[in-house]
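User: Sequence recovery, please. Input:
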């Protein structure tokens, strides 16, 4: 990652969670839009990280959402099998998730990023974002927004979590469990 990237800009904090939407709203004194943006039926998840290198035949991570009734539902992979390898686009977008199935009564999204056991690979997760569903916005556009316009990203997101400059390691056999407030 280059020195101008978002990782450098979020490197000020040593604790693992550097910022989330709730913290950001408290810091923002002249926030012009409503505290909670209107969530249409569908939303996207952006997962920003590094060293997603498992390859084209097998994804580095599997991504699950916890449905309202507590069932774990697989919604995607990081990277997608079509992408594979260490790509220039470091943000992976999982599109068109149904809010009626995955938004809990406490206005949270429960997300698991699983690195299946049996591979030797590990990666770092730097941020996860719950975003409006926009069919034309893919990995390239998401990576560009994260690395060049964090202020706009924070405002557009329904919820997010960003980690310190070291990110969170997700090693072989580990699961990163997140509860993102909206």
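Assistant: Recovered sequence (182 residues):
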């Amino acid at each position: 990652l280059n020195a101008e990237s978002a990782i450098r800009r979020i490197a000020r904090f040593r604790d693992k969670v550097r910022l989330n939407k709730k913290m950001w709203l408290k810091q923002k004194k002249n926030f012009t839009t409503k505290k909670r943006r209107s969530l249409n039926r569908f939303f996207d998840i952006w997962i920003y990280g590094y060293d997603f290198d498992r390859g084209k035949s097998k994804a580095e991570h599997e991504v699950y959402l916890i449905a309202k009734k507590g069932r774990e539902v697989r919604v995607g992979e990081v990277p997608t099998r079509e992408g594979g390898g260490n790509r220039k686009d470091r943000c992976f977008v999982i599109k068109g998730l149904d809010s009626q199935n995955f938004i809990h009564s406490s206005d949270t999204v429960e997300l698991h990023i699983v690195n299946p056991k049996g591979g030797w690979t590990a990666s770092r997760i730097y941020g996860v974002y719950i975003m409006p569903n926009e069919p034309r916005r893919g990995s390239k556009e998401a990576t560009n927004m994260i690395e060049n316009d964090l202020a706009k990203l924070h405002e557009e997101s329904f919820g997010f979590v960003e980690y310190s400059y070291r990110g969170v390691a997700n090693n072989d056999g580990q699961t990163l469990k997140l509860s993102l407030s909206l």
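Strands lie at 17-20, 42-50, 61-66, 72-78, 91-98, 108-114, 123-132, 159-163, 168-170, 175-181.
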